[in-house]
Amino acid sequence: MANASLRVAIAGLGPIGKGAAQALDQGIDGLTLAAVSAQTPEKHHNWLGTLKKQPAVLPIGKLCDAADIVIECAPANLLRSIVEPFVAKGKTAIVLSAGALLENEDLIDIAKKNGGQIVVPTGALIGLDAVTAAAVGEIRSVRMVTRKPVKGLVGAAFLIENNIDIEHIKEPLKIFDGTAREAAKGFPANLNVAVALSLAGIGPDRTRLEIWADPALTRNTHRVEVDSDAARFSMSIEGIPSENPKTGRIVAQSVIALLRKQRAALRVGT
């Protein structure tokens, strides 16, 4: 059984889900694409037909019976219904809606109790290995500054609730300054990276975040500064948006890289 192929299910067929599905279909050692789920399956019928081996198309509630690992890349409000069945049965859930974890923290206890695992990929950030290592000691502060094109932020709950109009701005505008937890509530589809950073380091209430809307930008930019007892470091990345302006192309690639590590003979990184 040690060499048996692990079955993977994908919940959500946006840019991330499709990217992972294509990679699995092309071949990742020790893994097979067993099933997918989407809110409107008929919308993806033709695309699924391009795969060499078509997976089962199932409702979310049936995915756990068909797979050992689920990749959650669906709207944040669906996180619990996707993740809980897997971790309750000692299986693995790869979570992209990291912000929603903060409102479902008991899922971590459920996973621990039943031998399951919740994995948050690096996604659109770099250096999470360094943050995780620093957290073994003492991290004094973590600050992140995110700058995004306007269309990558339009429609965020925080903007609507505070009547902030960014569609007509002519210069960069700081629209948020607060904690990662607050950002997760106000920007649930935009700032999962900030939550991933906080989970790797000093938590969502001590991780500080600024968000800027910049009409001149075409890329999502993130700069992180960390001060710890082991090192002081900063890192920045400029991500090219996918067909969904709220998500960078590198996020799907991060998931694929994680999948390749599952049965790899050599793993590089913490």
Verbal overview:
The chain is α/β, with parallel strands linked by helices. The protein has two domains: 6-123 and 250-261, Rossmann fold; 128-246, Dihydrodipicolinate Reductase, domain 2 (2-Layer Sandwich). Helix content is 31%, strand content 25%. It has eleven helices and eleven strands. It has helices spanning 15-26, 45-48, 63-66, 79-88, 98-101, 106-114, 128-134, 157-161, 180-186, 192-200, 249-261, and strands at residues 6-11, 31-37, 56-57, 69-72, 92-95, 117-119, 139-148, 173-179, 207-213, 220-228, 232-239. The strands form two sheets. It has a six-stranded parallel sheet with strand order 3-2-1-4-5-6, with helices on both faces. A five-stranded mixed sheet has the order 8-9-7-10-11. Helix 4 (79-88) packs parallel to helix 6 (106-114) and helix 9 (180-186) runs antiparallel to helix 10 (192-200). The longest helix has 13 residues, at 249-261. It is globular, with a radius of gyration of 19 Å. The two termini are 26 Å apart. The mean pLDDT is 94.
